[in-house]
Design goal:
Membrane topology: Multi-pass membrane protein
Strand content: under 5%
Keywords: Cell membrane, Membrane, Transmembrane, Transmembrane helix, Transport
CATH architecture: Up-down Bundle
Subcellular location: Cell inner membrane
Largest sheet: none
Organism: Microbacterium barkeri
GO molecular function: transmembrane transporter activity
CATH topology: Growth Hormone, Chain: A
Oligomer: single chain
Distance between the termini: 36 Å
């Protein structure tokens, strides 16, 4: 097979600092996915409510936005290694407290909400800072390859983490699952601790309103960056049915926690595969068009996933009466294939969006723009959780809880395609974006 088709490993071989950070981020992210899956299942067990599960993400939206924006300002003023270490410590402490409460039996829905909020806010600072660091570690030429390697990280941690999380919860319970995340996250500290000092290059601004306004003025002069942010919000708002997965596993497709983990993991399988064979993807110059086509494919397959759930609710291709011990195996497999395709499409879009942002934005302001990027990437799914959970809850009155699960992805996928097409047609410069002659 041509090496041009396969993943470019030069960022790992040419930058030991990036390699250590990449390994630490992969293992730490794997543990984080165990906790995310466990918290979703735990909340559903405590409340029996899909809406309560969706509110885990929604409740953390405002703190995450504040943390992402302020964290970006910190990364553009202080040593970025120090900022990332401090935020990672906060993330680790909240996970450790979650494990202690689970072991002692003092956990409840309020604690799950509170610790998830703090954890996601701190993690948004870690993510924004690491992304601002990457171009300095690998150089401009290897930014697309580094973005593809980050797709491998996401693929590994989401592919293994949710499935393993579902199995661990089913076999050993929540305390052990949370504790494993506490242990795995220690590897992230090794990757961050061994980094060199990385202060921003160029004129910087002290964190505060002036720094935020400076970043906003830059973004106003960068229409292509704004469009990619907007497109990602559209995709993640209407095409992210993650909050429905516990109910889908319990009453739509059957199989319980294991099915929930498999559905989340299927998305990551697609992301992993698209990164593994990302040689030609990374070499493609027209990133605006690449983002557009990837998001359109994402929307189409999300709608197909909704149709699969509708078939399950109608009792097709499997048992009509499903449950934890009676899964609808044929439709679970088809649903996983759909989610693998959405994961691949989303990862291709992410490679181009990260490359565009990291290549075109000056280092002195990169932290703030990466902060906005993290707000968009993590905030969109939270709004999407509200959309999916709210619509499913509203529709359950006339479709039933099992029947209402198919409506958010079907309608949302169609909206993603329609809105994306309209936005890009109104902004032809974005569609014509050329990485060899980038225009903000």
């Amino acid at each position: 097979m041509s090496s041009r088709v396969l993943l470019d490993l030069r960022p790992l071989t040419q930058s030991p600092a990036f390699a250590r950070l990449w390994v630490g981020s992969t293992l730490g992210g794997l543990g984080g996915q165990l906790t995310i899956t466990a918290v979703m299942l735990h909340m559903y067990e405590l409340t029996g409510s899909t809406f309560a599960v969706s509110m885990i993400a929604v409740a953390g939206l405002a703190p995450m936005i504040v943390a992402g924006l302020y964290g970006g300002m910190l990364a553009d003023w202080f040593d970025r290694r120090t900022v990332a270490l401090a935020a990672a410590t906060a993330t680790w402490l909240t996970t450790a407290l979650l494990a202690v409460l689970a072991w002692t039996g003092h956990i409840d829905a309020g604690w799950l909400y509170a610790l998830s909020i703090v954890n996601s806010a701190a993690n948004s600072i870690v993510s924004a800072t690491k992304m601002a660091i990457t171009p300095r570690l690998v150089g401009a030429e290897l930014i697309p390859a580094a973005a593809a390697l980050n797709g491998i990280t996401v693929g590994i941690m989401v592919m293994v983490g949710p499935a393993l999380g579902g199995v661990l919860v089913a076999l050993f319970g929540y305390p052990l699952t949370y504790t494993l995340d506490v242990v795995l996250m220690l590897s992230l500290f090794l990757g961050l601790w061994t980094l060199p000092r990385l202060r921003p290059e160029g004129a910087t601004a002290r964190p505060g309103l002036a720094s935020l306004a400076d970043g906003w003025r830059f973004l106003r002069r960068a229409p292509n960056i704004r469009i990619q942010f907007l497109l990602d919000i559209v995709a993640m708002t209407f095409g992210n049915p993650l909050a429905l997965f516990p109910a889908i596993g319990a009453i739509v497709l059957g199989g319980g926690e294991i099915t929930t983990g498999l559905l989340v993991a299927a998305n990551a399988v697609g992301a992993f595969a698209s990164s593994l064979f990302s040689g030609r993807i990374s070499a493609y110059r027209f990133h605006g068009l690449g983002i557009t086509r990837a998001i359109q494919v994402f929307g189409v397959v999300t709608a197909v996933f909704g149709l699969v759930l509708a078939a399950a609710a109608a009792g097709w291709l499997g048992p009509g009466d499903v449950g934890p011990s009676s899964p609808n195996v044929p439709l679970i497999v088809i649903a996983m294939l759909c989610l693998a395709c959405t994961g691949a499409a989303d990862n291709v879009s992410s490679i181009y969006r990260q490359t565009m942002l990291q290549s075109a934005v000056p280092d002195a302001i990169r932290g703030r723009l990466q902060g906005v990027f993290i707000v968009v990437v993590t905030g969109g799914p939270r709004i999407g959780a509200l959309y999916a959970g709210g619509l499913a809850t509203a529709a359950s009155g006339w479709l039933g809880e099992a029947g209402s699960a198919w409506l958010p992805p079907l309608l949302g996928g169609l909206l993603v395609v329609a809105i994306t097409t309209a936005i890009v047609r109104a902004h032809p410069r974005f569609r014509a974006y050329d990485a060899e002659a980038p225009e903000l």
